Amino acid sequence: MIPIPLERRQLRIGTLTLDVPFYQAALSGYTDRAMRLLAKRFGSPLTFTGVLLDKIALHPKAVKTLQFLPDDEEHPVGAQVLGSDPATMAAAAAAFVKSGFDLIDLNFACPASKVLSRGRGGYLMNHPAVVAEAIERTRAAIKCPLMIKLRIGFDDSERSRDDFWDICRRVAAIGPDAVCIHGRTVAQLYRGKADWSVLAEVKRQYPHLTLIGSGDIMTAESVVERLTSSGLDGVVIARGAVGNPWIFRDARALVEGSPVPPPPDLAEQAGVLADHLRMVLQLKPEHKGLMYFRKFAAGYSRHHPNRKTVQLDLMSAKSRLQIEQAIRKHYLPDE
């Protein structure tokens, strides 16, 4: 695979320069401190919290106790803000910056029904003026880099397409530090394939925008393929990193033109699994932590030659001890 040209191996987001043109996405219900730290250790130059509701920031005690708050070793780390009122979103952004985050990302893309029903996230793809106001107010409220997250429309209607391009025009005039666009409509959720041709067209029409693409980045090879085929400035790795922090290591090697490391052997997988579990249980009580960890266990088991058996044992474990026993049984049988 042809490496990325030297001049395109960095990604600049305002005053922040990443040494590779990809990073860990904000994933609601996934990117807590544990997942962020693993992504960082395996080569992601930037990570994000899960989505943070803007109203949380209006309650200082709640902000201080958030499990989302950054750890000293994970900077730079961004906060992704979700809301419906531009003034509240701007105030929240300022509060999260004060709490230690290095970058703010305004989410106008979330397709979850409970988010849409409250006029937040992807709902605002129908309201270009509100999107623009939120960006302008937030930029005035913070001094760190500001980026935004969009989808390619609310649905496939002509009106929705017009709204999308109206948002692009307004965003290009305002000039946030970066724009990340997911190549599906809000109505699509995660069904079908992401349409990167729309993202490439946005970059063609607004070349001065720092444009980052999202959607179907499930392998290290897809990182490089999308960077070279779309002409975008960067890509974001989302679901492809769940239970697979090695994707950052491998993508970094491909971008730099270095040999890709061999797949993790069973001993390495066991160590990462155990470390991830340990960090999760530092954040949550054991019962809740074990339930939460199951969705990561499903991802990790994909690397094992006996995937189905391993996944069943990890998912059915009812205690920390049982998970640790399953790890030793399947990953460290000779110990």
Can you offer a commentary on this structure?
The mean pLDDT is 92. This protein has helices spanning 33-41, 60-65, 86-98, 113-116, 128-141, 158-174, 196-205, 220-230, 246-256, 266-283, 286-300, 307-316, 320-331, and strands at 11-13, 16-18, 22-24, 47-53, 77-82, 103-107, 146-151, 178-182, 211-214, 234-237. It has two domains: 6-256, TIM Barrel (Alpha-Beta Barrel); 266-331. The chain has 335 residues and is of the alpha/beta class. The strands form two sheets. An eight-stranded parallel β-sheet has the order 3-10-9-8-7-6-5-4. Strands 1-2 form a two-stranded antiparallel sheet. It contains 13 helices and ten strands. It is globular, with a radius of gyration of 20 Å.
